[in-house]
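Final report, closing paragraph on structural work. Over the funding period we assembled a curated collection of sequence-structure pairs, and we close with a single example.
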Amino acid sequence: MAKPAYSLEFEKPLRELEKHLDQLHQQSLENHLDLSGEIAVLEKKIEAAKQETYSGLTPWQRIQIARHPKRPYSLDYIHALFEGFQELHGDRQYHDDQALIGGLAFFEGQAVMLLAQQKGRETKEKISRNFGMPHPEGYRKALRLMKMAARFGLPVISFIDTPGAYPGIGAEERHVAEAIAVNLREMAMLGVPTIAVVIGEGGSGGALGIGVTDRVLILENSYYSVISPEGCAAILWKDAAAAAKAAEALRLNAQNLAEFKIVEEVIPEPIGGAHNDPGQTIAAVKAALHRYLRELQALSPEELLNQRYERYRHLGLYEEAGVMKS
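Its predicted structure, as stored:
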């Protein structure tokens, strides 16, 4: 499999070794030389370097992987995992937001409603998708589709991948906070199974606007946080360049989320990230969706609502009269 052309800063020493290996293979072919010994030694060195590089990733390095431009995006998962995807457009009030897509599809023969934040790859698509940052009308479109799913008894599956909701003037004028807040309330009351998968960035209310679900899953190198590390750094250190320090303070690590019971499962990725083997990653997501969807479909609407209430009621800690409670 071809190696990704784009390298992160901390991966550059590893990429230099891989480049040297390619050169040895090329020399062997062009000059009819037996370099198998040198190649074997270098391959072992590369394997050791991979283990060293990726086994102790910092939260900031994982965020860089979550933002990798070659990482599979929502539509990659939708086209690979679902059949007959029919995108539905517009919020019936203002506009069709391309940063937040949704529609009907079949998962293993079961009709489902899909919601997803979609980033763009090329410049033109990035602009049309607003870099995966939804406007208020995106969340209102999602709300319309959630209600449609509830009406017809369809499970709702969300793919979360956004740095956050769009913070521009237009979004404020059209009341993005209200749009997200309504979605939180309505998702909490849906009488159908709901699952969210964080596949990249899970930033703030922008992610939560389609993430109040019965089960929340997250890929190993993704993050899910109340604020982006740059936003946190700008507030606490008055400098967005302190993002790495903020990532450490926020404990932006998928395993931490599992320990705090904010997510039900951390889905493993291939070494180096999902972009190194999208097929393997997509297969792992499929297996998790299959398992949790079957589990949730065995519950009645009343059981779903009660379990969802208990799930969110017990998240986090709060203080009352000086006593810490959970």
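The chain has two domains: 10-56, 63-315. Strands lie at 83-87, 100-107, 110-117, 156-162, 194-203, 215-219, 223-225, 265-267, 318-320, 323-325. We thank the funder for supporting this effort.
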